[in-house]
Write a structure and sequence with these properties.
Strand order of the largest sheet: 1-2-3-4-5-7-6
CATH class: Alpha Beta
Helix content: 25-40%
Number of helices: 6
Largest sheet: 7 strands, mixed
Number of domains: 1
CATH superfamily: Gcn5-related N-acetyltransferase (GNAT)
CATH topology: Aminopeptidase
Order of helices and strands: EHHEEEHEHEHHE
Distance between the termini: 33 Å
Number of strands: 7
Radius of gyration: 16 Å
Amino acid sequence: MSTSPSETASPGQLQVVRVHPDDPLAAPLFAELSVEYDTRYGDLFGGASQELTRYPAAEFLPSSGEFVLLLENGVAVAGGGFRRHADPGTAEVKRMWTAATHRRRGLARRVLAELEHRAAARGYRQMHLTTGPRQPEARDLYLAAGWTPLFDPAIPRPTDTETLRGLPVAQRLYAFEKQLPGDPS
């Protein structure tokens, strides 16, 4: 676990920490995220185990990525990471999560802002992410946080499995991008 003086907190306050994705502190994130993916999507995208192992943990480590948690009283309550995207200068947000018992507190927005800040500090000028049609709260978060949809938000996406299965993968997802502050040269 890596913390800096600005990341320390008194008991009951939130603490932002950078961790390795395999850190035991992140285990609850992945356990709950796995259940959530399987509950919402079943095997539509290959199942949670395939999705959560699609990218090696090393891709979420400096210098090309980071993985952060919000801790409250030493327990992870939210987190997420970014990795280098295929496009140069673009980071991709992955594994955004808030514990079910801590939702509706603005924690996901705080994680997202932290990831944006850290990606900009690493020299990324843009971020990309995708979410699925069975995660409307994520879609709404990204829209509210100023992310640009790469789809028409006015057109409803199907949520039934068979219709989704019949669509190309790119049409099964909600893709977003956001320009980060900084000198583009």
